[in-house]
Amino acid sequence: MPAHGRAGSIAGMSTLHAVLQAQRLTKHYGRREALAGVDLDVPPGRVVGLVGPNGAGKSTLLQLACGLIEPSAGTLRVLGARPAADAAHLARVGFVAQDAPLYAGLTVAEHLRMGARMNTGWDDPMARDRVARAGLPPDQRAGRLSGGQRAQLALTLAVAKRPELLILDEPAAALDPLARDAFLRGLLESVAQLGAGAILSSHLLADVERVCDHLIVLAGARVQLAGDVAALLAAHRRVPPGAPLSPDAERIHGDVVRGTAGAPVALADLVLAYLNRAAR
Ligand SMILES: Nc1ncnc2c1ncn2[C@@H]1O[C@H](COP(=O)(O)OP(=O)(O)OP(=O)(O)O)[C@@H](O)[C@H]1O
Predict the structure, then answer these.
(1) Contact (CB, 8 A) for 146 and 179
(2) Which residue ranges in the chain fall short of pLDDT 50?
């Protein structure tokens, strides 16, 4: 169970729509296939970990979900509608892109004023409170903030819109362990405060294990594994290679099997088994 203990909870959600629904979702960049017929159904109220090797298609999926790029084929619905369908839908989704894009010459306070001007649902007390608690000096220019502070400011700009869904593309990858810990705690607090869902891509399986209650494993442009973490762990076991398997069990890779007989499996080992199988 992740530290926030909200696995399976939909308390506080203002929507009962699936957060993300993909059918045969495909994206080509020229001849390169970044997503190949992906089917997904992510229930509301989850903190979703999107994991996979470099080039798996994670950023492509998140950019499609934000409406920054268009699918080549198939359909994708986010909170029950086409991504970025209109201004109202845009307001329901907060996006924190890779490397926390901010205006280097603007101060923290100026970023908040800009956020207030650009977002009708802007929660200024929430923004100021987050900035104060993250120890961001209001008059400091973004270009002079540390990596951790920049990530906190980018997260603040996304959550103060009061979105129903936060989408984060490797938000904490460049942060040291302390800054990452602070960032992830801030993320969980915000998600709980908003009653929102979140999808974050990450290479850091320990972070995913800590904060996520739903998992999507992408590799080779395809979904290898998806579901609520508790259900996935319940459906897999460790059985030493060569040991007999029950008839309904399937060996995924190494000692990880899909089945209910055997020793419990850790989330990181489960992910690695599916990634290794995909790489075969
Ligand atoms: N704008 C683009 N033009 C051409 N090819 C692209 C473009 N964006 C992504 N790709 C290709 O699509 C595939 C998926 O890329 P994507 O960035 O979605 O993967 P990722 O899982 O986010 O990788 P990483 O973990 O390295 O960030 C890769 O082969 C990548 O080279």
Answers:
(1) yes
(2) 1, 3-14
Query: What's the gap in Å between 118 CA and the centre of ligand 1?
Result: 30
pLDDT at 16: 67
ipTM of the complex: 0.97
Residue nearest to atom 12 of ligand 1 (CA): 34
Q: Which residues contact ligand 1 via a Cβ below 6 A? A: 29, 32, 34, 52, 54-60
Nearest in space to 151 (alpha carbons), one of 197, 201, 202, 186: 186
- Please report the atom of ligand 1 found closest to the CA of residue 27: 12
Q: Domain-by-domain residue ranges, the chain?
A: 20-228, 235-279
Q: How far apart are CA 224 and CA 53, in angstroms?
A: 12
Candidates 26, 31, 32, 275: which one to mutate for ligand 1, based on the most atoms within 8 Å of Cβ?
32
Helix, strand, coil share (%) of the chain residues, nearest 5: 35, 25, 40
Give tens-digit pLDDT for 204-227. 999 999 999 999 999 999 999 999
Looking at CATH, the fold of the domain delimited by 20-228 is given as Rossmann fold (3.40.50)
pLDDT (0 to 100) of residue 249: 94
- The closest-lying atom of ligand 1 relative to the alpha carbon of residue 53 is 25
What are the tokens at 220? 């080779």
Instruction: Round to whole Å and give the CA distance between 113 and 124.
Output: 9
Phi, psi of 180 (to 5 degrees): -65, -40
pLDDT at 2: 54
Taking the centre of ligand 1 as the mean of its atom positions, its distance from the CA of residue 11, in whole angstroms, is: 35
Q: Which two tokens stand for residue 134?
A: 């993250």
